[in-house]
Amino acid sequence: MKNKLILIACIISLFAACTSSDDYDAPNSFSDVSWYTSAFRSATLGVSVNDFASFSDLSQGELSHSWTIEEGSFFLEGPITRSDSVYDEFIIEPRSLETEDKTVHVLFTEGGLKKVRLYNVFKDSVAFKGGDDFIFPAKRESGQWVIDTTFIVDVYDTIVPQILIRQNGVVIPHESVSDIITVEAGSTLELVDVTTIGRPNTRSWNIAGVTNTDSLAVIQFNKLGEFKGNLNLSRQGGRNTWRL
């Protein structure tokens, strides 16, 4: 008898649970804002010209969402592998400056500071919380909450080496491969790196068996003979060489 009572009680409980579903109130939808870029936590996102960067909107519960880029930048679609170095075939057609995709890969074909804009609209108030207690709150507009943020991408041009050669304080022509500079044994040449395009941050002069990493290199020639040299310029993601 006891077992029957328990069984009846279970059936009644199950029936009550099923019939009460019409009265169930769903919890409020969850809203949150978050994003990710290929720069991780770095404050500056830097890429070389004709390279790309990735951006992901990890927000939840947004009413609308969009990414916007500038002229000279293009949205890509993959898969893109590490061995790929030319990305024209990955450009999304028809070409557009705006997309509602959650994750985007943006190709930059022009040097300089470029903008990538993320625009999200939420029903509820949200705030992005970054590192070092950084908080970016949504702004209320027309009864909704808006996250409008722009990522600045520093796009480095291809490195174009430019140098000066001075002998006894006089600038010596060196643009032609046929230019020959005559130096007496024991005397010096001043080699000056004046490169600006591409903004290299490391360099290495190599001439007459001497290596120098200064922007102004004073090279002394202690041996007789003919010498060739080069200047190697580089930065993260770019490199170029000037033959002397």
Question: Your description of this structure?
Answer:
- The protein has one helix and 20 strands.
- It has 244 residues and is mostly beta strands.
- The protein has two domains: 35-156, Immunoglobulin-like (Sandwich), CATH 2.60.40; 163-243, Immunoglobulin-like.
- The strands form five sheets. Strands 2, 4, 6, 8, 11 and 12 form a six-stranded mixed β-sheet that branches. A four-stranded antiparallel β-sheet has the order 1-3-7-5, with no helix packed on it. A four-stranded antiparallel β-sheet has the order 14-13-15-18, with no helix packed on it.
- The N and C termini lie far apart (104 Å).
Please give the count of helices: 1
First-to-last CA distance: 104 Å
CATH class of the largest domain: Mainly Beta
* CATH fold-type name of the largest domain: Immunoglobulin-like
Instruction: Supply the CATH architecture of the largest domain.
Output: Sandwich
Radius of gyration: 31 Å
The gross shape turns out to be elongated
| Total discrete domains | 2
String of helices and strands: HEEEEEEEEEEEEEEEEEEEE
Q: How does the major sheet shape up?
A: 6 strands, mixed
Helix vs. strand class? mainly beta
Mean pLDDT: 83
- Which regions have little confidence, pLDDT < 50, spanning 5+ residues? 1-28
**β-strand number:** 20
Helix amount: under 10%
Question: Approximately what portion of the residues adopt beta-strand conformation?
Answer: 35-45%
